[in-house]
Amino acid sequence: MAQWKLLTFASPSGPRAGLAVGSKVADAAAATGNAGDASVQGILDDWDNAQKRLAAAATKVEAGGVATQDIATLKLLPPVNWPVAIYCAGANYSDHVARMAAKQGTNPDPNPKEAGLKPWHFLKPPRSACGHNEDISVASAALDWEIELAVVIGRKARNISIADAYSCIAGYTVANDISARDLSRRNGVADTSPFKWDWIGQKVFDGCCPLGPWIVPASDIADPMNLKLRLFVNDQLKQDSNTALMIFNIADQISHLSSRITLHPGDVILTGTPCGVGAESGEFLKAGDVMRVEIENVGTLTNRVASITG
To answer: Whole-structure pTM over 0.85, yes or no?
Structure first.
């Protein structure tokens, strides 16, 4: 059976869902004969049935029975264009927590999962997402990188158990939770004030959530909790870790989020970043820097910082 991936590409008529088999990309709706497959959101809304259509169409693509384009010629957009919601896990890798504590000269907090606490998430707006090879411009003097495995929801989930959490996952993609560290605190507000922190300033701006280049079906990832993660800036390795170091695993996060709000097809969950971010060393991105984000068996996501003002 042909292996396939799901992506969104720009076409003269607007964003279209693409079915990628190797380097060949077919228009998903044309390949399946189902008009609802014109968008990735439409596919996710009918995920149980769509998987079968896409698998059959992938076999035709592999055999040359469907018109295709080379992926290198396409402009790729965020795989879900746009996500319904983007949930982001904070402080969720043991190596990152330890490194930040060392930088601050403090002892790491006790493991929150072992202490009986719950996962911690914040939100990015859906339209903060950008695609593979898209340039980023932002006003920040301390722009940081954060590799993250992203989960794409394919089935509605409310109060789902940890044991059943994986059943609502459509697939996985690569994410980069780009952060403006110098905008994390509000000027003119006392450091002791509970209103000092500015999550919008730090985490929300155009292009702050690169996603892509595609979605790999969950059935193709044998163990998402044992994937190598690597991020490079200008070909220099900055982050090198494994999803096994998550504090709250994928099932923990899905179950917890679904206890607060219904998860819907098209929702994306960024599951946290490991050590090696710029905030740990005080090194930040400059105009012209290229970030390459690699997750084992999922893909490689590349973005360039076009300009920075701060």
So the answer is: yes
